[in-house]
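Chapter review: from sequence to fold.
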Amino acid sequence: MPASPIAPYSRVAAAADRLIPGDVLLLTARLGAAAIFFLSGRTKVDGLLHIKDSTYSLFETDYKLPLVPPDIAAHAATYSEHLFPILLVLGLFTRVGALALLGMTLVIEIFVYPDAWPTHLSWAAILLPLIARGGGAWSLDRLLGLEPLPARGFAA
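The token string follows.
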């Protein structure tokens, strides 16, 4: 009986599954999401955390949110874009940080840039595995015992 034409693909897929552990994927997701949001946060400040006048202007005009005063929104977004990415890099309270950044992504999608859904969907795709699986083996969550060892699947 001739070999299936799918067999070579299956062998390559199995090799990739063995060579790229789930923990590598989670670390990459943590660093990738952190970079996106931290770099955005850095555009809103001078120095360490001094919020620029232009940031306040953006939240008064372009980023205007319902029910949230622009100055409060500017502070909340700027500090969130600094704090939660640092937590992701460290792998500390990974699920909380990823959930907060997903919430920010949803607010941006719904109220600020609804036409940017492909970008926001890609951010969600990076954040959702972190919410579902945590920071992985190379995280402070795991080192400190905040996350149990995985029982199955993705980060096994």
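Two observations follow directly from the output. The radius of gyration is 19 Å. The longest strand covers residues 45-46.
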